[in-house]
């Protein structure tokens, strides 16, 4: 390197140092005072709570920031002292180790001098560990929406591109571009994100197009939807005529609003394609909103509409209750029922009832029905809400009585027994002397109740019927009350949330039926945990068995994922065979659920197996999209299932059992063909005579 080049480089280093580091005169060191140390004199503090160090990417980002803007926040240091208490000239970095490492990285790359002076804040008053801990946990990362605002300002005001912004902040250009994409999102959605109504992934999904009106339209019906659902709705260009939304609004309404249906003359297009997606969604939203208004008029605190059921919403639920009648009304209703019974008995055999009798029967029915309906308590109406959801089949599902966490009424826990029988003394053993009402020690209480637990276990083991009741009670507490602690049985039962594995799962017929059955049982469950036992005991045998079956079924998990569970999955196959599971009732090989998500080879193999080899050969020349469109109707018609959804046929009996049956059949044939017995004897299968009297005795 020439002398002039070396001088230029040193000058550049001096400029960088002068720009980014403040040089001041030394003096007396006091806590909280700024002081300048050469970079080479800064050491890592043993009191730094971050023992795992910093990730290289973090140091790179800080180095880029320092190189662009200098050190904005000076490190906090504590002067190093020798055994005699005097300063060694070095400083231990209590807070700002990442900045020190970033400076060392810049010095290593010869972008700053190794001896560059660094402005530091000296603190010997506060505890070093406390300072380090506060430095690391007292920070809140910037929200992506705030990053977007800052990046957008720099892009527009400074004219910087994604690469320039990324270089100055130590992030990749891809991250900057991702944040800048949020400029395509409507301000109302940014506001919803800041208020935590949307996740970042959901917000990014809305940025798939820059049409703010469309974004807001989709937001109205996809507030809690998966990001993939939002993205698909934003990029959707046509709607099939058999789509659930079309079933809901009616094709006539779409056409009356000016919509157009496009038909494919050369393939089964399932009734055609609706070309105006925005119009379809607007009509759906308007019709759902009208239903929401009707339901809200019932007096609910809130009412929401959804295109997919918001499973995992974290809401609790209240249920309607049977009316409580006054004594006078109860007597009146009993008299009406008696009168109705008398009239029915008197006129039961008459085909054409007199007008006055028919009118009286109708009046009694209406009178009894008027106040017999279950109803929500006024207090529950005032704090709960309703969900209006468009189901998989285009039918609206209305679920009432959901309570948001902030509206849940917390009941105080029951106080410990006043007599103190469960209170334990802190001492390990009882004193020989003491009052009769002195509490027992914790050790003795545990020992006595262990004896009782053993006895109770044996008693329950001897009563299978009661054991089933206990099992049903424990599972019901977990399934409906989320209170497994209210049972003395230590039974853990969990239910995997199946919609996590696929968006279409929660709209499948089987899942919808399970949710409906859950609601039916939940309506009957007592609100208090301690009342569930009496409820379960009070059920008849068949109802209790049905409840147990449902609770057990909720724990079943046959999902194949990366977690393995080979033995459990093998048992699931056995269970499918035992129940003769037929998935054709719950699943169809549509484009959305299967065909568009597998290879062209998979689709052709399905056609060859389910329809015919000739049909598969005829379709083999089509492109993937056209192939799926052409294959779907036939595969749905024949109810084709992929291997993962098929139920294995029952395994035939073992060869030994088959041989045994063959042997028995041969013996029976031989016995039937033997000549009649002589002298009171009966011919046996093994040709050994047996006395008739002996055979009869057996």
UniProtKB/TrEMBL annotation:
- Return the GO cellular component terms, semicolon-separated: chromosome
- Tell me where the signal peptide lies: none
GO BP term, pick one: chromosome segregation
Residue ranges of the region described as Disordered: 409-436, 650-698
According to the UniProt entry, which residue ranges have a biased composition of type Low complexity?
663-674
- CDD domains assigned to the protein according to its UniProt record, in alphabetical order: ParB_N_like
Concerning Pfam families, the annotation shows:
HTH_ParB (PF17762), ParB_N (PF02195)
Give start and end of each ParB-like N-terminal domain. 35-137
**Can you tell which superkingdom this protein's organism belongs to?**
Bacteria
InterPro entries from the entry?
Chromosome_partition/occlusion, HTH_ParB/Spo0J, ParB/Sulfiredoxin_sf, ParB_N
What's the protein called, per UniProt?
Chromosome partitioning protein ParB
Question: Which organism is this protein's natural source?
Answer: Caulobacter flavus
């Amino acid at each position: 390197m020439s002398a002039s080049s070396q001088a230029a480089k040193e000058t550049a280093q001096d400029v960088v140092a002068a720009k980014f580091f403040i040089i001041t005169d030394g003096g007396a060191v006091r806590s909280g005072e700024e002081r300048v140390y050469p970079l080479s004199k800064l050491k890592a503090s043993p009191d730094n709570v971050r023992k795992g160090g910093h990730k290289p990417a973090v140091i790179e980002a800080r180095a880029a920031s320092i190189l662009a803007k200098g050190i904005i926040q000076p490190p906090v240091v504590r002067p190093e002292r020798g055994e005699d208490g005097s300063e060694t000239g070095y400083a231990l970095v209590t807070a700002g180790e990442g900045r020190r490492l970033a400076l060392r990285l810049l010095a290593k790359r010869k972008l700053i001098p190794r001896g560059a002076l660094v402005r530091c804040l000296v603190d010997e008053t506060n505890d070093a560990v406390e300072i380090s801990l506060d430095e690391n946990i007292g920070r809140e990362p910037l929200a992506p929406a705030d990053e977007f605002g800052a990046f957008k300002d720099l892009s527009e005001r400074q004219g910087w591109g994604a690469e320039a912004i990324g270089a100055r902040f130590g992030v990749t250009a891809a991250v900057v571009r991702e944040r800048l994409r949020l400029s395509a999102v409507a301000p109302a959605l940014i506001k919803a994100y800041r208020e935590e109504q949307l996740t970042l992934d959901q917000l990014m999904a809305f940025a798939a197009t820059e049409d703010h009106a469309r974004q807001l339209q989709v937001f109205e019906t996809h507030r809690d939807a998966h990001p993939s659902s939002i993205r698909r709705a934003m990029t959707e260009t046509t709607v099939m005529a058999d789509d659930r939304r079309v079933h809901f609004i009616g094709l006539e309404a779409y056409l009356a609003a000016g919509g157009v249906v496009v038909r494919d003359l050369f393939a089964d297009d399932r009734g055609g394609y609706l070309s105006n997606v925005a119009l379809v969604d607007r009509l759906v939203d308007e019709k759902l909103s009208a239903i929401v208004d009707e339901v809200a008029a019932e007096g609910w605190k809130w009412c929401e509409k959804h295109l997919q059921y918001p499973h995992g919403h974290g809401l609790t639920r209240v249920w309607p209750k049977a009316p409580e009648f006054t004594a006078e009304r109860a007597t009146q209703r009993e008299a009406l029922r008696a009168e109705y019974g008398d009239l029915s008995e008197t006129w039961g055999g008459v085909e054409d009832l007199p007008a006055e009798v028919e009118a009286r029967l109708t009046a009694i029915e209406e009178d009894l029905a008027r106040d017999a309906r279950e109803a929500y308590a006024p207090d529950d109406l005032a704090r709960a809400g309703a969900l209006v959801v468009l189901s998989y089949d285009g039918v609206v599902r209305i679920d009432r009585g959901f309570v948001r966490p902030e509206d849940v009424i917390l009941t105080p826990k029951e106080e410990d027994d006043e007599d103190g029988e469960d209170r334990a003394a802190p001492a390990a053993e009882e004193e020989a002397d003491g009052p009769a009402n002195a509490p027992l020690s914790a050790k003795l209480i545990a020992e006595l109740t262990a004896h009782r637990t053993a006895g109770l276990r044996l008693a329950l083991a001897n009563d299978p019927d009661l054991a089933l009741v206990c099992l049903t009670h424990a599972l019901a507490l977990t399934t409906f009350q989320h209170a497994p602690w209210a049972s003395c049985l230590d039974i853990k039962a969990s239910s995997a949330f199946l919609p996590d594995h696929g968006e279409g799962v929660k709209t499948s017929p089987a899942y919808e039926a399970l949710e409906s059955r859950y609601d039916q049982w939940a309506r009957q469950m007592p609100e208090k945990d301690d009342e569930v036992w009496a409820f379960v005991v009070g059920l008849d045998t068949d109802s209790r068995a049905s409840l147990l079956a449902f609770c057990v079924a909720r724990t079943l998990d046959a999902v194949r994922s990366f977690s393995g569970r080979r033995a459990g999955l093998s048992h699931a196959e056995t269970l499918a065979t035992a129940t003769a599971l037929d998935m054709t009732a719950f699943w169809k090989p549509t484009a959305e659920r299967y065909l568009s998500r597998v290879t062209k080879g998979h689709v052709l193999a399905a056609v060859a197996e389910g329809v015919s080899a000739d049909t598969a050969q005829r379709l083999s020349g089509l492109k993937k999209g056209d192939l799926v469109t052409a294959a779907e109707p036939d595969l749905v018609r024949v109810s084709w299932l992929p291997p993962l959804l098929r139920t294995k046929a029952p395994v035939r009996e073992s060869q030994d059992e088959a041989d045994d049956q063959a042997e028995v059949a041969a013996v029976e044939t031989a016995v039937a063909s033997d000549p009649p017995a002589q002298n009171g004897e009966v011919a046996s299968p093994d040709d050994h005579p047996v006395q008739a009297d002996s055979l009869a005795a057996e």
